């Protein structure tokens, strides 16, 4: 196996591990929310991420430049916004629905590429977008009930993650994965800390179950997963990354059923199936039409 092929294979494996870790993160967030409000959870997990990535990035401190700070800051802002929306969403919806609605971010990425770099939006992307809207409707709208605000937060979270995936794929081609991760974690921590101070959401107690959930989120769902994502996207295309990362929703539902004993309805399964079909059509179907153009623009 040639070096490039080996790196590509390892990149695929790395992204698969990220999806498993992220999928388990929905369950950990649900447990943490039993004891803490969203902002302290975010502040703690980003603090852990900042410290861990700071330790590993220290040997590469000479690679910190104005460009890397600017790039990492952009990634950090979208990372904070996406996670804040996702955590708030789970106060009003279930972990499995949150996971599937978040997964719609891979359908949104091509439209971001069009707006910023004028990368062509193919017919597959349009079909995927329409199916996603239908799937979200089937999954979220219940007869006799008003629209769930948690579902709206989950979808806005997907937009935030779409920007984060897009910019990560662009910036990591030009910078150190360790440095970029340290900077984005630092920016996300500062933003969450400021929000905690402004809102006054200070935890009244520190229950063991809540602490363990937050530590898991900080070490695995934040530090390890985002380092793996940033490193792996060096050796994969944005299309491949989008397809693989969308499987986070499947693992999110799996962990929710196994650990939280969440009940899965046929309506939920139908909505999830439509969303997964939309993701596959949007990303896999449009690969031949869009990959070459997309990659050439993103590396400029």
Q: Would you kindly provide a brief summary of this structure?
A:
By secondary structure, this protein is mostly helical.
Describe the structure.
By secondary structure, the protein is mainly α. It has one domain. Helices cover 79% and strands 0% of the residues. The protein contains 13 helices and no strands. α2 packs antiparallel against α8 (177-199). It is globular and about 50 Å long.
Estimate the helix proportion, in percent. Answer: over 70%
Shape label: globular
Major beta sheet summary? none
Total strands:
0
The SSE string, one letter per element, is HHHHHHHHHHHHH
Residue runs with pLDDT of under 50 for 5 or more positions: 292-300
User: Alpha-carbon distance between the termini?
Assistant: 29 Å
Provide mean pLDDT, rounded: 82
Specify the structural class: mainly alpha
Estimated radius of gyration: 19 Å
Q: What count of helical segments does DSSP give?
A: 13
Number of domains: 1
Report strand %.
under 5%
Layout of helices and strands, plus pairs?
Blueprint: H1 3-32, H2 38-57, H3 66-89, H4 95-102, H5 105-117, H6 123-140, H7 149-171, H8 177-199, H9 208-232, H10 238-245, H11 248-260, H12 266-285, H13 287-298
Helix pairs in contact: 1-4, 1-9, 1-10, 1-11, 2-8, 2-9, 3-7, 3-8, 4-7, 4-11, 5-6, 5-7, 5-10, 6-12, 8-9, 10-12
Essential attributes:
single chain
């Amino acid at each position: 196996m040639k070096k490039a092929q080996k790196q590509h294979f390892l990149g695929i494996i790395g992204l698969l591990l990220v999806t498993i870790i992220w999928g388990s993160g929905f369950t950990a967030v649900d447990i943490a929310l039993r004891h803490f409000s969203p902002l302290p959870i975010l502040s703690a997990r980003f603090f852990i991420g900042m410290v861990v990535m700071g330790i590993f990035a220290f040997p590469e401190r000479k690679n910190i430049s104005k460009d890397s700070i600017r790039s990492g800051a952009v990634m950090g802002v979208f990372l904070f916004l996406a996670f804040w929306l996702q955590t708030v969403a789970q106060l009003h919806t279930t972990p499995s629905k949150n996971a599937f609605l978040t997964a719609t971010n891979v359908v949104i990425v091509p439209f971001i590429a069009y707006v910023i770099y004028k990368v062509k939006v193919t017919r597959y992307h349009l079909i995927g977008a329409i199916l996603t809207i239908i799937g979200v409707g089937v999954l979220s709208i219940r007869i006799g009930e008003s629209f769930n605000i948690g579902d709206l937060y989950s979808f806005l979270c997907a937009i935030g993650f779409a920007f984060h995936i897009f910019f990560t794929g662009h910036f990591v081609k030009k910078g150190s994965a360790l440095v970029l991760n340290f900077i984005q974690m630092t920016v996300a921590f500062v933003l969450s800390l400021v929000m905690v101070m402004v809102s006054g959401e200070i935890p009244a107690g520190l229950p063991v179950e809540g602490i363990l959930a937050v530590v898991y989120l900080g070490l695995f769902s934040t530090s390890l997963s985002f380092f793996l994502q940033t490193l792996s996207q060096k050796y994969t295309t944005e299309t491949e990354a989008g397809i693989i990362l969308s499987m986070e929703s499947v693992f999110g539902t799996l962990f929710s059923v196994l650990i939280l004993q969440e009940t899965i309805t046929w309506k939920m399964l139908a909505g999830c199936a439509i969303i997964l079909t939309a993701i596959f059509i949007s990303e896999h179907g449009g690969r031949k039409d869009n990959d070459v153009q997309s990659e050439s623009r993103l590396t400029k």
